[in-house]
Amino acid sequence: MSDEAPAIRTTLDATRHKQITGKVMPANNAFQKAYPGEPTGRQPLHTVYGGAQLFKSDTTAKLGELALAHLATYAPDAATLAKALGLPGDAKLHATVYERVVAKLKSEPVEDFRIDFEDGYGNRPDAEEDATALRCARELAKGIKDKTLPPFIGLRVKPFTEELKARSARTTDIFLTTLLAETGKKLPDGFVVTLPKVQVPEQAKVFCDLLEAIEDAHKLPRKTIRMEIMIEVTQAILDSQGRSNLPRLLEACGGRCTAAHFGTYDFTASSNITAAYQVMDHPACDFAKQMMMNAYAATGIFLSDGATNVMPVGPHKGATLTDAQKAENAEVVHRAWRLQYGHVRHSLEGGFYQGWDLHPGQLPVRYAACFAFFLEGLPQASERLANFVAKAAQATLVGDVFDDAATGQGLLNYFLRAYNSGCVGDEGVAATGLTLEEVQGRSFKKILENRRKV
Is the pTM of this model over 0.85? Predict the structure, then answer.
């Protein structure tokens, strides 16, 4: 048998191949422009919103103090918290989760905060909202100076419906004009303006026109003021012709949009679901969020779920409660905690890594759910990723789990989110065989390409 390599023959020469394959280049380029990939940077685990009438420069620090006190009252130790939430795993995992929740509430209790001029504020006289917008902008400027703000912050204005567009535009203008004047044209890190209840692309487009006009008036670079949209009505999912409105809403933002947030209760209301069944894990919500994921995957924006609206608040108040009253309070709080834990877990399993919180008593649950989610799968995920990297992306088998290239990217995303959440530190990343820089680069393909060059 001959050892000579077989002759390689083709029907067409290289020139003809290039002529044929060149025809797909415009479509490929258009695809890459529309889908640039996952967004870079850190995504907060949650957004906390509070009525603008209550906002002060140190609001988020006070929320942390209240959250710690709430945790100490209703779950003074890891075992109590684990039992209240129904956490999976063993006592060691529960202790780690509890320890990290406490540390988080002390160091960074709120990751993202929204000064709310919509549902949390309501409809008030114009003079009152004008004054509130002015005061809140000054408080935000004070927070920048005093370094009391969370990593991400912004305001939510009223929707750009025909009824509320003028009020929304005026609040946006007053707030931003005052803030820019107070700070010498500086915005806080992670600052966004949230536009709720977007129904048609034109609302998002005109709102962006407003932000652009404010930037031009202050001689700021275009897209300095970033914005988000909220998906809260059925018409945002499908338009009157039965077409998906989601891509058109994003396109209308002209590259200014950083995230799309799902509004559970407005969406279920617009779906004619009665109040008793307006919950985050309702099938209608899952349908809408799956549509969002399909429309916005690899478009460069983050996705966020909604909030649990059952608050962890006991019925009895005061400092001289009986043991029976304290027990009843704990039962009510723990029931609300279990509900929220289930909702957050449902979001995480569905690929939504951010949600909304409404009360300081919800913060411990948010972090406990996220930390437990990442920590319980950490050992196997570390082994799988380390093994896959070592094999240079050839398909591998760890236990009974088969991994291919797509899984490698999924594992990388897992560690990036676990690291950004504070759940996994540098040592956790190192266990994968990757550097922090490689993980933060977000591309498994690039990691392998660079390593093959060495």
Answer: yes
Phi, psi of 228 (to 5 degrees): -130, 160
Q: What is the DSSP string of 191-252?
A: EEEEE-S--SHHHHHHHHHHHHHHHHHTTPPTT-SEEEEEE-SHHHHB-TTS-B-HHHHHHH
pLDDT in tens, 108-141: 999 999 999 999 999 999 999 999 999 999 999 9
| Helices 323-349, 59-74: crossing angle, 10 deg rounding | 120
240 close to 199: Cβ distance less than 8 angstroms: no
Q: List the chain domain ranges.
A: 46-375, 377-453
d(CA 155, CA 171): 10
Can you state the angle between helices 363-376 and 405-420, rounded to 10 degrees? 140
pLDDT tens digits for range 297-321: 999 999 999 999 999 999 999 989 9
Q: pLDDT tens digits, residue range 188-199?
A: 999 999 999 999
Q: Could you give the maximum distance between any two Cα atoms of the chain, in Å?
A: 96
- Gap between the Cα atoms of 58 and 454, Å rounded: 50
Per-residue pLDDT tens digits for 218-230: 999 999 999 999 9
Provide mean pLDDT across the span 79-106: 96
**Which CATH code of 3.50.50.60, 3.20.20.60, 2.30.30.220, 2.30.110.10 fits the domain covering 46-375?**
3.20.20.60
